[in-house]
Design goal:
heterodimer, A: 538 residues, mainly alpha, B: 204 residues
């Protein structure tokens, strides 16, 4: 068996040749890369829309576009970023590529279904982008599709709704695939509590995907029916209830926040032990907190609607649960920091991103508590403060974790090393640019700057100006980061099998991994993150 | 070498069934959204819902319930027959299942077109003149039975593919995952109807 030469998955020749060997591949690693490329392309489309909005806001009054164009931009920016990048991003790219590797499997449970999910994803994503050009002008409802406006707006809202439904279906199938994979395909000896923590995070995420996504599917179908058939579910003139839509929408879309952040937490949980050369602190606590977040996260949707008209008891209940759900997140932060404590820390780009993840995620989390308390919510509701808060969570959290993941696993994926120095410089741009972009929005938000506004009073000028400068710096950093990785893919130094001295299963096989992943399925005899210094108790 | 044989069969039948069960859960949640909306509006407009439900033909509804219940039985018998290795009986029972499903759809077609003749369809002027509760009831009626009928059609496609595969002997007494999963899906279609029928037809 050892004599058998192992062909890497990048060079493997299957039944199909050329581009078809990718587009028809059921190899989880190739599908992961196809997701990666799609995510990068759509991310830059949406990021450019974001930069255009920031340019518009650099000064009061009209700068470069009409108000209606601005409405279209923030809608499409939101739809692409949320439904195409942030919700599926980490789970589809790194979940696909590394979940089977981390649990010692040769592929996911349903490889063809996996490929089908990718096609659904691409269809939905393209439809989302096309809705900007098709029909009667870009949708202008915001990504939340609030009724009654999403029923009345004359723009091509239906295309965007359909795109979101298709993307939701893709997300359900991916989640289903991962749950079955984790249940059925772990390597022999890998009991539940011997599974690494990224798969645990994917597992918790997948359950939310499965249990929450159908609700948004049916809700958006109802909005389509409202538009096409004039049914009246959400139209007060016909006896319906618009607030009912908000409930249904957030029943999915709040858990969706945890679909975004749980895999991000999983990624950094892999990174801290490796770059501290120390077992992860509190393995069980991290597992339980992931599951607790997934569970409690289901019951907090009402905190998006404190001003929409709910009974007082409903409001304090949702507020209370919002504070409860912060606890498991805080437990994780405690665990990550304790993992680093006393370790031999190696400050490579993945760890830099992981540490900035903690920093940004905590700012996002604490400001989330400001929004979660009933009294302060009234002041900050629908202001730029909210925009800053969720960008800190989504971009600072999920986005930076994504960058951490790509820098961590790049050598394994391509078998090449990137330039550390350039990666560090790009990180500097990203970190500084990010904070300069979003932090001023907290301040002007508290002062009363509304979100989604095209124009503003002169008193907010300084904040907006700084924010736009930050956007330029961040964008430059992103471009530098991607170029660095693209150059490395072709011309980087050959990566060893285990450049970071990691101890999880993906580092035991060659870089890039062979088509079959493992020549022999490994036997697991102990908990993960064993660095050979001292035996963990239990 | 032996290594290659270990992984070629990714989807053993337990794995395939687990996937199907999870998928069925998502279907329940999909309909769950509609049941939730139904519950809310029925609580708000209970008297009007009762009036509107009187417009539906409970006899056709009951007939359709019988069709689906019997078809659920025949598909279960088809699976049992396949496990015993009786191919012809399996094919016969699957065909009966599809015929019953087609009768269900036919009934639904007549039922809907009858309503259309009276001008009761979403957005119609007749409906707009009715009370809010009745209007929402018929909105829910069309949305719920429509989505259910779509599932019946998908189920029919699945069962047809199953028949083709049984004929080609790709489904046999040792490998019948596809048959089992189609049957599971069909039971779900039946199950949802068991709830739709009383909620829409029998609340007069």
């Amino acid at each position: 068996m050892a004599s058998e030469t192992q062909v890497s998955y990048l060079e493997y020749q299957g039944r199909h040749k050329g581009i078809w060997s990718w587009l028809l591949s059921t190899d989880h690693k190739r599908i992961g890369l196809m997701y990666l490329y799609a995510v990068i392309v759509f991310f830059f489309i949406a990021a450019i829309l974001g930069v255009l909005m920031r340019i518009e806001l650099i000064a009061p009054g009209r700068t470069i576009m009409e108000p209606q164009t601005y409405n279209g931009l923030f809608t499409i920016h939101g739809i692409i970023m949320i439904f195409v990048i942030v919700i599926p991003g980490l789970a589809t790219v790194f979940g696909n590529f590394f979940l089977p590797l981390l649990i010692g499997a040769k592929d996911v449970a349903f490889p063809r279904l996996n490929l089908f999910s990718w096609y659904l994803y691409i269809t939905g994503a393209l439809l989302g982008v096309l809705s900007q050009f098709l029909g009667d002008g870009p949708p202008d409802t915001g990504w939340t599709f609030y009724v009654p406006y999403s029923v009345e707006s004359s723009t091509s809202v239906i295309w965007a709704l359909t795109a979101a439904v298709i993307l939701g279906f893709s997300s359900i199938l991916t989640g289903l695939n991962f749950i079955v994979t984790i249940h059925r395909m772990r390597a022999p000896g890998m009991k539940w509590m011997r599974m690494p923590l990224f798969p645990w995070a994917i597992y918790a995420t997948a359950w939310i995907q499965i249990l929450a996504t159908p609700i948004i599917g049916i809700t958006l179908l109802m909005v389509i029916a409202e538009r096409v058939l004039n049914i009246g579910f959400f139209d007060p003139a016909l006896g319906g209830d618009p607030v009912l839509f908000q409930h249904l929408f957030w029943i999915y879309s709040h858990p969706a926040v945890y679909i975004m952040i749980l895999p991000a937490m999983g990624v950094v949980t892999e990174i801290f032990p490796t770059f501290s050369q120390k077992p992860v602190f509190g393995y069980g606590a991290i597992v339980l907190s992931s599951l607790a977040i997934a569970f409690v996260g289901y019951f907090v949707w009402g905190h998006h609607m404190f001003t929409a008209g709910m009974s007082y008891s409903a409001r304090w209940f949702f507020s209370f649960l919002t504070f409860i759900v912060a606890i498991p997140s805080a437990i994780k932060v405690f665990n990550w920091i304790s993992t680093m404590y006393g370790g031999s820390i190696d400050l490579k780009p993945p760890l830099l991103y992981a540490i900035s993840f903690i920093f940004l995620f905590m700012i996002g989390g604490f400001t989330g508590l400001v929004l979660g308390s009933l009294a302060t919510n009234i002041q900050a509701h629908d202001t730029a403060f909210v925009v800053a808060h969720f960008h800190y969570i989504i971009f600072g959290g999920m986005g930076f974790a994504f960058f951490a993941a790509i820098h961590y696993w790049f050598p394994k994926m391509y078998g090449r090393m990137y330039n550390n120095k350039v990666a560090n410089i790009a990180w500097g741009f990203n970190f500084v640019g990010f904070n300069l972009l979003y932090f001023p929005l907290f301040i002007i938000g508290l002062q009363g700057m509304p979100r989604r506004a095209y124009d503003y009073l002169p008193q907010f000028h300084t904040g907006h100006f700084l924010s736009t400068i930050g956007a330029f710096i961040l964008f430059a950093g992103l471009v530098l980061m991607v170029i660095n990785l693209m150059v490395a893919r072709r011309r980087g130094a050959i990566a060893p099998a285990n450049p970071w001295h990691g101890v999880t299963l993906e580092w035991t096989i060659p870089s890039p991994p062979p088509h079959e992943n493992f020549e022999e399925i490994p036997e697991i005899t102990r908990r993960p993150y064993f660095f050979g210094k001292k035996e963990e108790t239990k | 070498m032996a290594v290659h044989q270990i992984h070629t069969e990714h989807t053993d039948s337990e794995t395939g069934k687990l996937g199907m069960w999870i998928f069925l859960f998502t279907e329940l949640f999909l309909f769950g959204g509609l049941f939730l909306v139904y519950a809310i509006f029925r609580a708000k407009y209970s008297a009007e819902f009762h009036v509107a439900a009187g417009e539906l033909n409970a006899f056709i509804g009951a007939m359709n319930t019988v069709f689906l219940l019997v078809s659920s039985m025949t598909v279960a018998m088809a699976l049992a027959a396949m496990q015993k290795g009786d191919r012809l009986l399996t094919l016969f029972l699957l065909t009966v299942t599809i015929i019953l499903a087609a009768l269900f759809i036919l009934n639904k077609y007549f039922e809907w077109s009858h309503k259309f003749e009276f001008g009761i369809y979403p957005g119609s002027p007749v409906l707009k003149n009715m009370s809010h509760g009745e209007l929402l009831f018929f909105g829910l009626y069309y949305m719920m039975t429509g989505l259910h009928a779509l599932h019946v059609l998908i189920g029919m496609v699945l069962l047809s593919i199953t028949i083709v595969r049984v004929r080609a002997r790709r489904i046999n007494s040792t490998r019948y995952l596809m048959l089992e999963n189609s049957a599971l899906y069909w039971h779900l279609v039946d199950l949802i109807w068991i709830f739709l029928f009383p909620l829409l037809y029998l609340i007069t």
